[in-house]
Amino acid sequence: MSKPLPNPDAIIAKLRHHHHALQDYSRLLASYIPLANLLPLTAHRLARGAGVTHSMVLRFDGDRGDLLMEAGTGWRTGSVGHSRFAIDAASPSGRSYQTRLPTCVLDLGNTAEFRTPDLLREHGVRSLVVVPVISGGAIWGLLEMDSTEPGRFDADDERFLLAMANILGVAIERASDQDVARMAVARMKVAASEATEAQTLRLSEMQHRMKNNLAVVSSMLMLEQQQHGDAYVKERLRGLMDRVAAIGLAHEQLGAHQEDAMVELAPYVGRLAENLALQHGGVRIETGIEAITVPLDHAVPLGLIVNELMANAVKYAFPGGFGTIRIDLRCDQASKEATLSVADDGVGMGPPRPGSLGTLLVDGLAGQIGGAVTRPPVERGSTVEVRFPIVT
């Protein structure tokens, strides 16, 4: 049976509704509105303009390395300000964050491409469209609208959401400019040095360029993934996208030591662990990480090692989907060496397979920082340790 043709009158009515909603939203932003008030207004205007009951405004949380729902409509009490979403390639919102492209899912219940976040499953969401919010050349967060009806959204809804996101991005940049201006006045009062401000700007520009480059890489990987019907190839490409995201999280940490591009490992590894925990609800992550600061070119390989070992544990060590991963980072000041340990209490993965990609990747990354990998025998599960020199 052929698919019925869309009703032209209904399409025109929807487009007019979108047009009026965008006009109304633009007028709303003619005067300055604090961001704390603007985001809830955006969520409500979005839902009203699209004729849906569920919408959300997600902001990238650089401290946690995930997406936080800053505003939304239609969700249970307590969701706004607390619900978080992973930035992995299997999450619809994470996919848009990584690639900076719109993501539209017509039926969450019948796709192997994406994982359904717990909050969406709780509310019976079947279809969604999510787009990035770009502000000042960097991705600030995402706009998303959701429906309990499969196939609810089309290209017109995607264009409407993109227009809303573009307007919001300009408003966020304007609010940021005003905040920067107020901060500049305060700095003048305390005679802050111009050199420090210039260095901060240079770092910010470097981070923006790096994020843009990583987003291009993620987009290329996503396009390549969509061309393959082989599930194994699609899984490997999705894993590569998550490794690119891990590199991006390392660059987010640069703000702590601007002058020498140093990264604090404790918050960085903690954010990687929290992001994985969001992806796999049955896996508990425990950490015992000492305060160690390393150069960026050491932090990135270490982050990729942690990401690879955690992903392998989730994939192979927990057939039932439940278990515990323990990450420890210890520093021996006497020997000027540190030891990173990733252990699980699963069924074990046996000895490393010669030539396996995971083994080669971990060993190669450890070699980049002058480290060595050991896999000590344990009674239960598996443990991998990486000992590397402290160069600071």
Word description of this protein:
By secondary structure, this protein is of the alpha+beta class. The protein is about 50% helix and about 20% strand. The protein is built from 10 helices and 13 strands. The protein has helices at about 10-30, 35-50, 90-100, 120, 155-190, 195-225, 230-250, 265-280, 295-315, 355-370, and strands at about 55-60, 65-75, 85, 105, 125-135, 140-145, 260-265, 285-290, 295, 325-330, 335-345, 370-375, 380-390. The strands form 3 sheets. Strands 3-2-1-6-5-4 form a 6-stranded antiparallel β-sheet, sandwiched between helices. Strands 8-10-11-13-12 form a 5-stranded mixed β-sheet. It has a two-stranded antiparallel ribbon with strand order 7-9. Helix 7 runs antiparallel to helix 9 (about 295-315). The chain is globular.
SSE inventory with pairings:
Blueprint (H helix, E strand, L loop, with lengths): L7 H21 L6 H16 L3 E8 L4 E8 L10 E2 L6 H8 L3 E3 L12 H5 L4 E9 L2 E10 L7 H35 L4 H33 L4 H22 L9 E3 H15 L3 E7 L3 E3 H22 L5 E10 L4 E8 L12 H12 L3 E3 L7 E8 L3
Parallel strand pairs: 8-10
Antiparallel strand pairs: 1-2, 1-6, 2-3, 4-5, 5-6, 7-9, 10-11, 11-13, 12-13
Helix pairs in contact: 1-2, 1-5, 2-5, 6-7, 7-9, 8-9, 9-10
